[in-house]
Write a structure and sequence with these properties.
By secondary structure, the chain is of the alpha+beta class. The protein contains eight helices and five strands; from the N terminus they run H-H-H-H-H-H-H-H-E-E-E-E-E. The strands form two sheets. Strands 3-2-5 form a three-stranded antiparallel β-sheet, with no helix packed on it. It has a two-stranded antiparallel sheet with strand order 1-4. Strand 2 and strand 3 form a beta hairpin. The longest helix is centred in the first third of the chain and has 11 residues. It starts with a helix and ends with a strand.
Length: about 150
Amino acid sequence: MKIARVLIEAGADVNHVAADGSTPLILAAYDNNPEMIQLLLDLAADRVNFAQTIQNGATALYLACQDGHTEVVRKMLAFEACRHQLATRTDSGCTPLFIAVHIGFDDIVEVRSRNQAARVRVRACVCLVCGRRAADGQTHTHTHTHLSLIHI
């Protein structure tokens, strides 16, 4: 951590992209390293690219949600720029929230629910948990058990 701190403070490229598309943020999220996440965000939050994806279109937030890294997700969602990534889809069409619900990481969904209510305004929406539908233009709020959505 000391070396990382020195490098970041010296202006190292916190968004250096490896051949697979990974960055320091992506690697820290994938490795469940909340200390490195915090260091990156404390020293370079204004420079970190939360939107960078690896080859399958997954962001750092997606990887953390996919693997149930609650503390990493909590730290990342403290930043508005990262919260925008909640709606980012992978190449297969999954969002970070969808994958957390699909795999069963309810604590990730709780973190998300505390940060912002899941309000949806779409042409049509189907909850994968209960099958509830929203018609054209309707807005509805889902509880943490109703956040697994397909937007049509």
